[in-house]
Amino acid sequence: MPPLSKCASCSPRISKPRVKQSRTRNPFLHFFAEYSRNNKDVKTSVAAIKAGKEWKCLRNSEKKIYEDMSARSKYVYRSRDKDLNKFLKHLRQSFTNSNEINVAELKATINFLERWKTKVLRGLK
Question: How far apart (Å, rounded) are the C-alpha atoms in residues 105 and 92?
């Protein structure tokens, strides 16, 4: 059986990644979460350095697992500004399908944007 990693200093991957979904888009963070679960006796700062070195040694085919996990993640950007979050929610709902645009939701988004703009401009005076 051929070695799994490019460099000899990295240990071969034995366990499969867990299916538990994380809410991040970063593939390395999925890898690091698994690495941390498998190495609970190591301090986090040391584990981060070791995981980074091992991540660099992984082949693209091995990284693909974590990239797929990132693509399937339920990550949604949220701002501290509640009004901006409402606007983004309306905007996401307007474009739920790549082929169709929800016109009613898009109108609601534009109306919300107009109200938000006037509110912000009033606050500047």
Answer: 9
- Give Cα separations from 18 to 37, 58, 109, 118 (angstroms): 10, 17, 38, 48
Q: What are the φ and ψ backbone dihedral angles of 5, each rounded to 5 degrees?
A: -105, 160
Please give the model's pTM, rounded to 2 decimal places: 0.50
Give DSSP secondary structure letters for 62-113.
HHHHHHHHHHH-------S-HHHHHHHHHHHHHTSSSS---HHHHHHHHHHH
3-state secondary structure (DSSP) of residue 29? helix
pLDDT in tens, the chain (125 residues): 444 555 655 655 555 555 455 566 788 988 998 899 998 898 989 999 999 999 999 999 999 988 888 877 777 777 788 878 887 887 777 777 666 777 787 888 888 888 878 887 787 76
Instruction: Report the distance separating Cα 49 and Cα 35, nearest Å.
Output: 11
